[in-house]
Amino acid sequence: MPFPIIDAHIHLDQYSQIDQTKIIKELIHYHIKALIAVSTNLASAKQIKSLALAHKEVKPVYGYHPEQELPSEQELQQLINFLEEQKETMVAIGEVGLPYYLRQENSLLKVEPYIELLECFIIRAKNFQKPLVLHAVYGDAPIVCDLLEKHSVKLAHFHWFKGDKKTIERMVANGYCISVTPDILYKERTRNLVAVYPLHLIMVETDGPWQFSKEKTHPKMIHFTMREIAKIKKLPIKEVYETIFTTTERFYSL
User: Fold this and answer.
1) Cβ contact 133:38 at 8 Å
2) φ/ψ of residue 219, rounded to 5
3) Alpha carbon of 209 to those of 136, 170, 187, 227: distances in Å?
4) Distance from chain centroid for Cα 71
5) What is the 3-state secondary structure (H, E, C) of the chain?
6) I need a labelling partner for 222 at 20 to 30 A (CA). Which of 116, 165, 231, 236 fits?
C-alpha cells in the first residue's frame, strides 16, 4: 500500500540484532513511518533508548510490563530515575498495566501490589504530560479505567484490548485509544471490537515479535490489518489510513 502508517506497539528489543536491522532497513519500503517501541523493564528500556538514538524511526516508550514478578524497591527506584532522566525524549510511559495472564497461571498472586505499581506510573505520566501504553484486558480493564479517571488521565492507549461491552462503552466515552493486531484476520472478537469502536480512536500494531503466522512478525503485517478495518467499517481504504495515521501521530506527538 502506498499510504503511510505507524506500528503503534512493538517490542523491538526482543528481536535479534539481524532482524532489528532488517526491519528498520525495510520500513521505508513498506511505508512504515515510525515504530512505537515499548519496553518491559529497565534493561529493556536501555536497549530501546540505544535503538532510538541510532534510528529516528524508533520512538521510545519506557515502563515495566506487568506479566512478570514485581520489581524490587531498588529496581523500581532505578527505573523511576531513568524515566525522570528520559522524560523529554520518550514519547510515552509503557508498557504498564495489570498481570491478567500471570494470575491465570497463579491464582494466589495478589493484584494489589501491581495496582500500586501501575498507579505510580499513571501519576508520573500525568506529571510528565505523556501518554500511557496499557496492558489491561478483560476484568482488569475496569480497574485501570478507575485509576485513569481518578487521576484525570485522558491519553491512554489500551494495546491489543479485549473486554466486555460495558467496558468498551466506558473507554469510548473517555476517549481512550485501542490498537488492533493482525489477529483481526481470524479473531471474531477483534472484528467485533473494530466494528463498534470509533475509527478516530483506533491504532494498529504488531506487538512483535508475537507470532501471528509461520512468518516472523514484521511491521509490514499492519497493512493486512488496515485492509480488514476498511472492510469492517465499509470505508475507503485511503480514509482509514489517513485517520489512523493522524490519530497515532497526534497521540504520540510525533
Assistant:
1) yes
2) -55, -25
3) 19, 30, 19, 21
4) 21
5) CCCCEEEEEECHHHCCHHHHHHHHHHCCCCCEEEEEECCCCHHHHHHHHHHHHHCCCEEEEECCCCCCCCCCHHHHHHHHHHHHHHCCCCCEEEEEECCHHHHHHCCCCCCHHHHHHHHHHHHHHHHHCCCEEEECCCCHHHHHHHHHHHCCCCCEEEECCCCCHHHHHHHHHHCCEEEECHHHHCCHHHHHHHHHCCHHHEEECCCCCCCCCCCCCCHHHHHHHHHHHHHHHCCCHHHHHHHHHHHHHHHCCC
6) 165
pLDDT digits 0-9 by tens, 103-127 = 999 999 999 999 999 999 999 999 9
Of how many residues is the chain composed?
Answer: 254
Rounded to whole angstroms, the Cα distance separating 240 from 175 reads 18
Place of cell 466506558: 170
Grid coordinates given for 234: 465499509
Q: Per-residue b/e over 207-224, b at no fewer than 16 CB within 10 Å?
A: bbbbebeeeebbbbbbbb
- In this structure, the number of other CB atoms found within 10 A of the CB of residue 178 comes to 27
What cell was used for 93?
510511559
Cβ-contact 189, 162 below 8 angstroms: yes
Q: What is the mean pLDDT of residues 150-160?
A: 97
C-alpha 152, offset from chain centre? 20
Separation of CA 168 from chain center: 17
